Structure formats: C-alpha cells, structure tokens
Amino acid sequence: MVFVAFPPDVASTPSDVKLLYQKVDDLIQKHIDSVTSPQTSGDDTSVSSISFVLLVIKTLTEAGKYIEPPILVRILQRLARDMGSSAGSHLRQGQRTDPDSAVSSRQGADLGAVISNLKSVLKLICEKVMVVPDCKRSVTQVLNALLSEKGTDAGMWIEDDFCKPGRVTSSGFISPKEIVSFLQKLSQVDKQSFSHDAHEDWDRKYLQLLYGICADSTYSLPLRQEVFQKVERQFML
C-alpha cells in the first residue's frame, strides 16, 4: 500500500502523497467527531458509522499507519455508553410479561452491533495506546465499568480465541497486579442473563485461559502463582 511505499514521516515522501495523508487524517477525524458526539448516541446510523470507521482504522493499522491513541479511547468510551444504554434497555424489555417481538428483536440487533464494535476497538487498543498514562487510565475505567455491568450479554465476553495464548499480555504496560485484578473481575461477570449453554461455554473458556497462564513460562512465576492462588482457586470454590 501507499503507506508502506511512502512512509509519512520520511523526508523523501512526495509532497502530494503527504497531502493525501493529511486529507485521510482529516477525513478520519471528521468521522471520529461525528460518531463520538453525544447527540448521536444510540442512533442506528451511528452504529454502522462506527463499524465503518473501525474497519478503516483496522485497515490503516495493518498497513502501518499510526492512529493517535486518544482516537481509539474516544471510540471505546462512546461504545461503552452505548453498551450500557443498549444492555439496560434489552434487560428491561426482557422483564416485561408481553414484550413486543419487533422491538425486542431490534434491541437485540442493536446490542449485538455494539458488542461487535466494542470487541473490534478493544483488539485495536495495543501497547501504543496503553503506554499513554491518560489513555491507559481511561481504558481501565471503561473495562472496569463493563466488567461490573449487570445483565451483560454473553456475546460480550465469549470469544472463540478467548483462551488462546497471548490473549493476556505479559508486557510491562500492564502490571501483574492489574492482570490479576482484571481476571478476578472477569470471574465475577454477571452471568444471570446467560443461557445454560453460554454459561458452560464461558466457564470452560475462562478456566482454559487461567490454566494457560499458569502453564505459560513466558509469564513470571510469581504472577502464575498469584493467578492460581487468588483467581483459579476462588473461582472453583
């Protein structure tokens, strides 16, 4: 791609290519401002717009284009607000004795789209984001809020690669204490709205994740011991 052939920060990159990069940046910023505006929260169009923006960011990231960390944090914060709104509405709808099927179906679809976008942005948040103190603080706050959310849909936390090696980082930007804390909170996720099969699937994958960490020598021995003592044992009680 163009970003590979002509790196933005190289002096030899032609001026017209740099102008193209600037236009791309301006366009991304315009869409970011649009989808993170409070006025668009819960809007059907904004959900699809966020999906599009995340797809563009993912493509640019894979091509080596650097995306400013605050941009990803703003999208995450917006989606977290939508998640709380959609989940609460979905939970209230489920408590009604005679829910309107069309409304319920639409709310379920909206929630599914928000969850999909949340997973996408979380996968884009990497070390470059987490090494920025303000960004790390914001991401941590959002994750803690999501982990304590009531009536969470199973799709938010169950991933096909949930238990694969590398899903929990051993990099220095997340301390062992933070890793243990997140794992503890993950074990306490509200699963009341999970189906029986989803509940079993979640338990199985969560335990595989814990056992994978405990057996992986790339993590420090004290961390593995702490995960076993403070997380796995408590979860199995």
TrEMBL record:
InterPro entries to which the protein is assigned, alphabetical: Tra1_ring
Region (Disordered): 86-105
Pfam families per UniProt: Tra1_ring
Source species, domain of life: Eukaryota
Protein name: Uncharacterized protein
Source organism of this protein record: Salix viminalis (Common osier)
